[in-house]
Structure formats: C-alpha cells, structure tokens
Design a protein that fits this description.
The structure is a single chain. This protein has 319 residues and is mainly alpha-helical. The chain contains twelve helices and two strands; from the N terminus they run αααααβααααβααα. It is 70% helix and 1% strand. The longest helix has 27 residues, at 2-28. The chain is globular. The two termini are 27 Å apart.
C-alpha cells in the first residue's frame, strides 16, 4: 500500500522539483529577466487565490464574493508587521494568514447560514466594508495606500506557498472532512440528515480558504511595494471567481491552469485593458455554453505512476 502511494506521488514530486529547478536555473542564467519573474510571481499568487476560493465555492458549494477582502486583510497585516514592527517575513506570512482566518471565522459564522445569492451578497458587502475601512484608516495610508519598501516576496517564497496551498487543500479534500464538504455541495439537506454538521464544515472550509487568501495577500504586498484599497475591490473578487469558474468548480488542476491562462492574457493585453475584459467575457460565455462545468469540471490531471517493482528474476542495479 505504501509503495503504491509512493508510485502515484513520485511523478508529481518530480514535476514539482523539475519546474522549480527550470525556473530557478533560467532566472540565474539571465534567460528570465525581472519582468518575467514578476509575472511568474503573479501566476503563483493567482493560483493560491484560485485554489483557496475553489475550496469554498467549488468543493463546498458556497458562493463567496469576498475573497479579495481576505486578501486585503493579509496584505495590510503583512505590511504593518514588517514595516512598523520589523517582523521576519516567515512570521508575517503566518500572521497574515491567521488574521484573514480570524476574519473569516467572524464573517463565516453568521453568513454561512445563508445560501446562494444571499451568501454572495453578504460576502460582497463584507469585502466592500473592509475596503472602505482601509480607505478611511490613516494609520495605513488611507486611500493613497501604504508603501512597502522591503520586497521580501520572491519566486522561492511564492513557489513554496503555492505548493503548500495545493498540498494542504488536496489532503483536506481527501480526508473525512473534505468528503463532508463535498457531501454538503451535492445535497446539504441529505448531508445534514446523515449527521454531518453542515455549519461546522462550511465555516471550516471558509476559514481554510481565508487563511490562504491572507497568505496570498502578504505575498502580494511584498511583491508590488504598495498596498492600496483599490487593489482589493469587487473586480478583484470577480477575477478570482473567474479563475474558479473557468477552470472548473471542483478541480484543483483546473484552478491552476485557469490562473496561469488568465494571468498570461492579462499580461499580453495590458496595453488594451478593455480588450482584456472583452476576452474575459467571451471566454466565460464560450465555457458556459460548451463546458458548463469549466475546463476540467470536477476532474484532476493524472500523471502515470512510476513502477518501482523489480522485474521477476532481475536484481536491483542490473541493466
């Protein structure tokens, strides 16, 4: 059993290490310049946001429109801790995630008793409340934002946090807790009748998703030097939601692919922002017509397992 598990996970380990080495080496050799690296960092942050929101919207069946608010909490918490209190960056990542998780708990307890459009409106209102609070909070620069002079975010941190996010959420979904969340998505009434505490698991998924949104916010704040309330408005929440819907509500692989695709489209069409929004709209229309479940639906990319068993009559180390 253990050998089969290793055989299934070894290809993913090789792929993960291989991607890291390729990007690191090409960056060190100057093949990838600073512009390329900041776009790769943006892709990593988008993956964290997309996968964490997919846990809430895709796997648990809720409809949150306030993910940018949790990202804002993490970003401002991280900026305050590093710039005003001199916290080390690893501790700042943890604190930013925990701050967003606490806010997620406070928001989740009363709002997750709602369903559908009512939950979407409640979480949207929460995000706007946070944005207005930061606009009127002079301690963090108000509407002008807060300048972050130390750029701690680099490819290594973003890659590590991206991989950690995927591993934690994937393991959560494969546990009994994750199966309870999926049961709630499929039929909340049936799940409740089977003894599943639906409110508990919805709040738990909300907190976990909020935590990683806060981590993404900390990475964002220390990558772009300035944190402004305008960066975490309604359109940012919609952009994260597009990643989830386009990739597939119920597929981690889909969120990863959609985050990469949307970020690349944004970079290519930066000089034409209106054309970028038109492409977003057309992509969503086409997906909803031809692939209502998203590009991946509820499926995941599967790599072929590597066999570690010795052939019959062959000794280890012989050709």
């Amino acid at each position: 059993m253990r050998q089969e598990l290793i055989e299934r996970r070894l290809p993913w380990l090789i792929l993960t290490v291989g991607v890291y080495l390729v990007i690191s080496v090409t960056s060190a050799l100057g093949i990838l310049n600073d512009y390329h690296m900041i776009n790769i960092i943006t892709i990593g942050i988008s993956i964290i946001l997309g996968v964490s929101l997919n846990l809430i919207n895709g796997f648990t069946g809720q409809f949150s429109l306030g993910h940018a608010g949790f990202m804002a909490v993490g970003a401002y918490t991280g900026a305050i801790l590093t710039m005003k209190f001199g916290f080390p960056f690893p501790a700042t990542l943890l604190c930013g995630g925990l701050a967003a998780a606490v806010v997620g708990l406070v928001i989740g307890l009363p709002t997750l008793r709602l369903r559908g459009d009512y939950l979407a409106i409640a979480t949207l209102g929460f995000g706007e409340i946070l944005r207005v609070l930061f606009i009127n909070w002079s301690y963090v620069g108000g509407a002008g934002g807060m300048v972050v002079t130390q750029r701690y975010t680099n490819f290594h941190w973003v890659y590590a946090m991206t991989v950690l996010t995927i591993i934690v959420i994937r393991n959560w979904l494969q546990s009994a807790h994750g199966r309870a969340c999926v049961a709630i998505r499929e039929d909340e009434i049936a799940a409740s009748s089977m003894g599943i505490n639906t409110t508990l698991y919805k709040v738990a998924a909300f907190i976990l998703g909020s935590f990683f949104a806060g981590v993404a916010g900390v990475l964002y704040a220390h990558a772009y030097y300035i944190v402004t309330p305008a960066s975490f408005g309604f359109l940012k929440s919609v952009e994260i939601l597009i990643i989830v819907v386009l990739g597939g509500m119920g597929s981690i692989s889909g969120s990863v692919l959609a985050a990469i695709a949307i970020t690349l489209v944004s970079v290519i069409f930066t000089p034409w922002p209106y054309l970028r929004m038109i492409l977003y709209s057309l992509a969503l229309i086409i997906v909803m017509v031809y692939r209502p479940g998203g590009l991946m639906g509820v499926k995941e990319i599967q790599l072929p397992a590597l066999s570690l068993k010795k052939k019959e009559g062959q000794q280890v180390g012989t050709p």
